[in-house]
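In the laboratory, one determines a bound structure by crystallizing the protein with its ligand and collecting diffraction data. In a computational setting the workflow is compressed into a single prediction: the sequence and the ligand go in, and a structural description comes out. We illustrate the idea with farnesyl diphosphate.
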Amino acid sequence: MLETVETLMTNMVASLGDARSVELFKKVPKGKRLRAKLILKIAGASPEALKLAAIVELIHAASLLHDDVIDEANTRRGQLSINAEYGDKTAIMLGDILYSKGFSELTALPHEVAFSISNAVALLSVGELLDVELSASFNANLETYFDMIYKKTASLIEASAKSAALLAGKDSKIYALYGCNLGLAFQIIDDVLDITQSSETLGKPSLNDFKEGKTTLPYLYMYQSLNKSEQEQLLSLFQKTLDTEQTAWIKEKMHSTNAITKSIEYAKKLGFEALEAIAGEEDVGLSSIIKEMIERKF
Ligand code: FPP
Ligand code: MG
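The predicted complex, in structure-token form:
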């Protein structure tokens, strides 16, 4: 089923009749296709669901092309990012091509689906702006962090689950709740992996979030548990390129304050709430999506 989604995505780009776009699109790493899997599990592999899955993955790929320009990231999934290999202008325009093609295909789907996805992309962009602005200084506010990750990551996953339910004639509200909690948990696990995994496993530099100015949930929990002088030490490392000793200090404090464990526990709690939302529904394998997402290593 996922191969059909890949073919549809390629065909959508090819339908623009521009060989360079097709060539560049082939260089974009495929990723986990979490959103496509979610849509196909909820809605089944109907032609409309397959199309929706391809559209959402095109839009998601576009958002990462732009995100890598914004974050000045040189790698994505273990390979050179498009901006690093072809420059920012090409990465931005390829992103524009992918998301606007996604939008034009979206007009052929039911109005409620088109609204839900396009509205989520607006939220995604607001979330990315918030992420950029929050990165200017250390953010010690949990509520602000959750608002940002809801918009930046969970909103499109929520809209994907909701839209799939709409296509399949299922209760869209409960699938939206499942998607929202899955999306929040997904971003928290991403934030944990940045600290616990090696660069090789991640396919991008590890311990990069803090250097980029991102105060993610483990840093927030850690900060809350440190004494005054340790808090000052942590703040002094914000946005810095860390040496071996500083890296070891952060990792040790992450563990001794239970910041990593607490973050994983919170992600698990959200995963549990996601499953509770759809407890009365037919089992289409949505629990395995949660389990794989929590247990992943990259
Ligand atoms: C990755 O965050 C970024 C996102 C999930 C969303 C990015 C959204 C935009 C750039 C808005 C524009 C949208 C479109 C459709 C062009 P991250 O930097 O925390 O994750 P990473 O470590 O994987 O880079
Ligand atoms: Mg990024």
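The longest strand covers residues 75-76. Keep in mind that any predicted model is a hypothesis to be tested, not a measurement.
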